[in-house]
Amino acid sequence: MSHLEHGAAVVMAAEELSRLELLPPELVYSILSYLSPFDLVAVSATSRILYTRASADHLWQALIQENVPGIQVRTPAPCRSFKALYRAHDPYWYLPKYKIWFADVNLTGRLIIVRYDPRRGCIEGYQLVAANRSRTFQPWEANRNVSIHHFDPVVQLHMDKTMIQLDAVDSADSLAFDSDSPAWARFNTINLRLVRSRTSSREGNFSRSPSPASVAPPKRSRLLCERRMQNSTDSMYATIFHTRVLSSDEISFCASPKFPYGFIWPPPAIPSGHRVFGTAAKLSGGRHFKPETRPSSRSDLSDKAFVIKTWLATRIPGRAVSNMSVIADPLAVSMMNLPLAVQGDDAVDDSLDDDVSIRMQIGQELATYATLDPKLYTPTKEKPFRGIWVGDYSGHGCEFLLVTQPDDETPFDAESIQPREEESPDEFEKRKYDEIVYRGPLEAVKLTGDPNVPRGEVTFRVADLGERGLINICQYEPFEGVRIVKSQGHVGSTGFVNDSFIESQLLLISHDRLAQYWSEFGHVSFLQRVDIDGFLAPA
């Protein structure tokens, strides 16, 4: 080939390339760094050159780092690349990204911290618990009939019980109910179940449906699938799955002004522009989920809520009477007093000719978790009390709270504060500080609760931290110099009945410690800020 022909070939090849491909690699990488994971995948499908560029490890490492606060992700282990690591945990990266998750379990609720462990390449979540190390109290000098309950909380993760564990494995193998998964036959309950025989119900006769191999698996969206978590054991199973974002019309139609608020989660006391159906609203006829509570596309998928299902699997004795029929032990069935639900292809152990064991699903728990807008718990110079707090609730133990301070309707102009005549510079600076910090309302909402006032309810509120709500500056130990403002405390009877707000007082000890004086009960209890970021790095 002559030089002329070679030059013409190069020109023709260049004309076939896109303008993006003709740019220097460093400029292409800079452009691609602004793309989302989905856009990167779309770009990589256009040509071999862009596939190579869009698969660059540093691009996917940055995408992972955006979802992992508190630590630096330096290696894709156990995956071969950061792109593979991202794919292994997609679409669950929102779990460590928002880190704080609270559940609608019973009246007490549950608070978990989700983080990424780079040593194992897994997403893990543990329950946050607290205990008060101090059991002492003292009378208050301002009123000797008032008891001050000392508070020295120990806040830690309950490491003995893993709530979430998602290992970086092939996502298809970890989708327990995915029709494309090799694990489908093991976990899909609809293809192998024992149905009570109508003709011999008194004898405990159960007919067996065709085996999984003979039933074609239904095609199901990956977003509808439950992913089995690696913290499952031989007897205890746990799966995690997505839920759907509710529209404003759905919320208006389903919500109720009274507890439990139409089973919408999070409840109205917690500011959120992102709500889903709570656990009770998801169920229809026992264990079956209403299809309208599950996402049908990524646009429907909530990245600020999810559901965990746990259940206990046990076995009862039985006897095979034919290839299609099993007789369960009548005594075992009557003692269980539960409908049978077989889990997997090993639900019936027919290794013996006559004696078999039947796997039972019992004790199922469903918990819907939601997260918080970081703005709600991130303190600022003007809103220093925002945060996650732990409070002393006497016989109920320690409970976790979200303390919020809403933004001002109109921005506060600090420059409008001017020195007064005969006011020293120090006095002016203190007054200016007080007017900036001590203004507007404050509200504390329970993230975990108790039988009297449950999770998701306001525990106390202050109408104004400023002059309108000021009672006095305390002159007595141990609160000398502390600002005291009017507040209202939320109380109720067991089962959250006959609840009401009573007059109380809030003592603003510091930005990290508060005290609530329950005047009607004659005691002062403390609250202390929790450093959530301190739990994000695995030990």
From TrEMBL:
Residue ranges with Low complexity bias: 207-218
SUPFAM superfamilies named in the record: F-box domain
Domain of life: Eukaryota
One Pfam family per UniProt: F-box-like
Keyword terms, alphabetized: Ubl conjugation pathway
SMART domains tied to this protein: FBOX (SM00256)
Annotated ranges, domain F-box: 17-63
Functional pathway: Protein modification; protein ubiquitination
Region of interest called Disordered, as start-end residue ranges on this chain: 201-220, 409-429
Compositionally biased intervals (Basic and acidic residues): 418-429
Protein name listed in UniProt: F-box domain-containing protein
